[in-house]
Design goal:
homodimer, alpha+beta, Alpha-Beta Plaits, eight-stranded antiparallel β-sheet, 9 helices
Chain lengths: 266, 266
């Protein structure tokens, strides 16, 4: 409750951390799919098999194009998954084999494991730089980074409908996400001196959120509610939003903790 | 917050469960140690290695004696660990090997893996019947089941001091626990027609709780606060107990949800 409250219930002044050991072995890979729904189906199968993925990331074809231009890579221009497994040597080998079979079942290609630290670093650097790569794909543009989350079973349609929306708009919006959680971002690139583009960006963002809620998802996956998504809280939480306010008043009756954010106001 | 509130915040009327697949492979084992602190040291090493134990249970020598009499087994009369690993075939084999090495490092003996379902069932039936075995070890007695939890680093001293306390009392109290959580129970067996034994049982239980709190633990590990441990809440939670009451009043201003339990009253 406290961690999800965005500072509205109080400040964390002391933390006790549970430490976990470095994994004995790590393997990472990237693989491509013809369609988004095949990539998502591979992820769903992996989760249902109980394979413990340490990371699983998704980038769409538009993001791949931006990453290629930025990092000098030549990844095929289709949706891709980037995945990492942790464990013992034999455990990671076994997980990699099983994941490889699942990927092949869904028509995945270009599948290769990076077990050397420098190869893994290169792979994840590509992902971590994706925002800058996407931003650089349209010099001078401003980025509106959207953030929604849906049940994984609805993820393929959420992404596909969002891509269609973006294609019908005057602006660009490569998509990437944390597919294991059903969470994704469109990086909407617009010219902030062009009123039509500004309006298109905000309209696309609004449509993403209402779509996420219609699919049983949430207005924000990890970026938070703050002020920007306050207007969606009633639709998402209904009577639960009043309960959140009751808890806020119980813990912070003077409303001094991050006032104005996230909760129904006054 | 809701799950730990013992019904004081409301009723659960609908649950959505996350299902997990049956593990592909399972292996269970029992092994003995000369002293309690060696068994606990083996568990601490296992956790620090990151070995994902599915279950890890502890039974003391007195519990072993009762289990032997009840189940017709002849387990040596020393502290024992019972452990189970889940995973793939090779994963479980690897975990079993590593755990075997840790046990040997701490002088554990009699170590053997049961991978056949019927052998595992027999092993866990022994554990699940331990309460009845202990109760039957003193026919006609009443059992006071205690329940405390301490940081695992303090578990060996908590158990050893509790055993010394029980040995100095007029009653018996075999000990067993969920050692991976630092949680254990003494099953205090007393004659409820004998005022000295009744007093001894309640005094031992009280001393266990105050010891747990002194060691940085909690008055109850899993059995709950309810009415029986209400008197320890102030000592355990301090000002936090008032916060719990504020949350209760926010969610249940009429105090109709499991009134009188767990929280500071009126």
């Amino acid at each position: 409750m406290f961690v999800g409250a965005e500072g509205t219930l109080g400040l964390i002044t002391e933390l006790t951390l549970r430490l976990r050991g470095q994994p004995e072995a790590t393997a990472a890979a990237i693989c491509g799919f013809a369609q988004m729904d095949e990539a998502v189906a591979a992820v769903i199968d992996t989760i249902q098999m109980g394979l413990p993925m340490a990371r699983i990331e998704f980038i769409d074809a538009a993001s791949v194009a931006a990453v290629n231009a930025w990092s000098g890579t030549d990844i095929p221009l289709t949706p891709h998954l980037m995945v990492e497994f942790h464990g013992s040597d034999s455990g990671v080998r076994e997980q990699a084999e099983t994941f490889g079979e699942i990927v092949a079942d869904h028509g995945g290609t270009g599948f290769d494991w990076a077990t050397r630290p420098e190869d893994r670093s290169a792979l994840w650097a590509m992902r971590h730089n994706a925002y800058y790569a996407i931003k650089a794909s349209r010099p001078g543009s401003v980025a509106l980074v959207t953030d929604i989350c849906v049940p994984i079973s609805r993820l393929a349609e959420a992404v596909t409908q969002t891509q269609a929306d973006i294609a019908a708009s005057p602006i660009a919006g490569p998509i990437l996400g944390h597919v294991g959680d059903g969470n994704f971002h469109a990086i909407l690139l617009y010219d902030d001196q062009n009123p039509a583009e500004v309006a298109a960006a905000h309209d696309l963002s609004h449509r993403m959120v209402t779509r996420a809620l219609a699919l049983g998802g949430t207005a924000t996956g990890e970026h938070g509610v703050g002020l920007g998504k306050l207007d969606y809280m009633q639709a998402e939480h209904g009577a639960g939003w009043d309960v959140m306010r009751s808890l806020k008043l119980a813990l912070d009756p003077g409303n001094i903790m991050n006032p104005g954010k996230m909760l129904r106001q006054g």
